[in-house]
Amino acid sequence: MRFVDEYRGAAEAQKLVRAVHRLATRPWTLMEICGGQTHTFIRSGVDRMLPESLTLVHGPGCPVCVTPLELIDRAIAIAGRPGVVFTSFGDMLRVPGSAADLLGVKARGGDVRMVYSPLDAVKLAQKHPDRQVVFFAVGFETTAPANAMAVWQAEKLGLENFSILCSHVLVPPAMEAILGSPHNRVQGFLAAGHVCAVMGFREYEPLAERHRVPIVVTGFEPLDLLQGVWMTVRALEAGRVGVENQYARAVTRDGNLPAQELMARVFEPCDRAWRGIGVIPRSGFRLRAAYARFDAERRFDVGDIRATESPLCIAGQILQGLKKPQECPAFGARCTPEHPLGAPMVSAEGACAAYFQYARSA
Amino acid sequence: MSGAAVDFAGLQCPIPLGDYPQVTLAHGGGGRLTHTLIERMFLAAFRNPALETLHDGAVLEVGKGRIAVTTDSFVVSPRFFPGGDIGSLAVHGTVNDLAMCGARPFALTAGFVLEEGLPMDELWRIVRSMARAAEEAGVAIVTGDTKVVDRGKGDGAFINTTGLGTVPDGVDVSPRRACPGDVVLLSGRIAEHGVAVMSVREGLGFETTITSDSAALHGLVAGLLDAVGGAVHVLRDPTRGGVASALNEIAGSARAGIVLDEAAIPVAEEVRGACELLGLDPLYVANEGKCLAIVEPAAAGAALAALRAHPLGREAVAVGEVVAGHPGRVHLRSRIGGTRVVDMLSGEQLPRIC
User: Fold this and answer.
1) If you classify domain B175-342 with CATH, what class do you get?
2) CA A152, CA A155: separation in Å to the nearest integer?
3) How far is A312 from chain B (nearest CA, A)?
4) CB-based contact (8 Å) between A113 and chain B?
5) Which of A16, A43, A119, A199 best probes binding to B when mutated, by most B CB atoms within 10 angstroms?
6) What is the pLDDT of residues B142-180, one digit of tens each?
7) Within chain A, how many helices (H) and strands (E) appear?
8) pTM for the complete prediction?
9) Which residues of chain B form CATH 3.30.1330.10?
10) Cβ–Cβ of B351/A4 closer than 8 Å?
11) How confident is the model at residue B10 (pLDDT cuts 50, 70, 90)?
């Protein structure tokens, strides 16, 4: 398949692996930001081809994983209301709330539907004027433009029965939090190529300078990742800091300006709680006042929801690169995809799910 | 079935639509309307001597030897999809389950659970499609049952089929028989049924020319068994859960490991593209017309040739082997040269966020 097979060639992979082995003279710890990248690493097995002196830790770029438990409980409460059609991306449906998940609400008779695009949720709202259609708007800068477009369209269409439960998060503040932590061990980053396709990489430049780290904007195919690792190690070995772009076929320094403009029109930055990590200042989006009537939290009063995390789950440490999934005592024992204690075990982008599915004793 | 081919396309719905454009509760009530439905629709489409008696059950002549029995219920949504429908699927699915026991299917039963309000001409399309699939597969639908449930208590139509087949002497096919050294053969391209059905699901509709691979596999299997007989250790049609789940089940039953070669697994370009976009792994997507055969290494060449000699097995390939290591686990040598576990899924594959 064109544009895919080119980035999965075994011979080219071997070449890059050998180049990394030649380059790496010291131990380095790298973090890939995005959970999609984590899955490619583990699934293709390229992480196990790299020198042992390199440690890969997995970043917070799993939207499902960082969505606070309270918000999932809120989603479950709204989805269970009569007259509500609750729509969500697929992998949010199985994430455990305090007592249930959204699939459980569906099993009990709630109208919970999987959609591929928030615009499909807008269409549902048009089709069912007598129902309240809610979309669970989670994700990073990658999903924010489409979610902004949905709200913008709903306003243009004058829809009174569409709203979003918003939990948007942003990558650079999370990187800032990781680098600023006294426990940080990350020395170089593979930044998330899809996020940068929207946002460009200007905002990463001051971050790299301030914390003296190399950041390589990296794609999602096995060869992208190997090249991203090679570029990061090359910068580390040379003592170079700054941003480099491996994913030039999709990413420019400025990014997608119309998408950024639409996001800025609909959303504004706000402090956000990250599941397992805590509140990070100005690390998320909320709807601007002009669009506040599309905010599901305002439309549905489900009362004060307080949730408590499983004390066994170390998702927060995994999402910050402080620990790896197998270092969790619950991994594969108390915590499995059937009985997850935390979101990284069920999300398609969760690090724990990647290790459980692809890497157990392989 | 009777000898003369039926012109299914030319048949009109035999229930006067002016009277009953939709299925009503009375069609399942056991009275005159039930009788009319059975006689005019089911008997008209499925006609054969065993069914014609309209008795409570069918009495069949069976020779000596072993009988294979299987049952399956069909609830696919939507009921019509590119390359098939719930009716043809209900025949193919059960015929294939028999074929995977090494059996030669000869009879099916059909149980219908219909929802009040189902358009009568839609039921006719389903019944006609079942009749055509049974005719093509050379099996008779010998007895059946119809129930109608209140509107809202079903999803249009559910069909259960039970199948009967004879197992030829010398055939011993069972997942437990997979042993180290055996070769894993696959009869063709995977993931077509699952992607075809998804392409017409509400909220997911995408334009594609992908059609379901739904087909009866007993002819393909008969050719394989004729060629290499007892050298065939395991047969499995990788339906729900796909090739990955089928091989995990076999590895578990046989207490052996299986190693797959990703580059050898045939997937049509368009199916790969759809799976990439939807975030699905074709290894876990359903097939309804593909067969996995695990055979002795010495017979692998002849087995492959026998599969390729049949129209449904033209693209058959060896995709892996059974090994003594990692019992119960399936590993995959990735295209790029790594190795990973291919696990069972804990639920359905859910498309990811981005």
Assistant:
1) alpha beta
2) 5
3) 21
4) yes
5) A43
6) 999 999 999 999 999 999 999 999 999 989 999 999 999
7) 15, 11
8) 0.87
9) 8-167
10) no
11) low
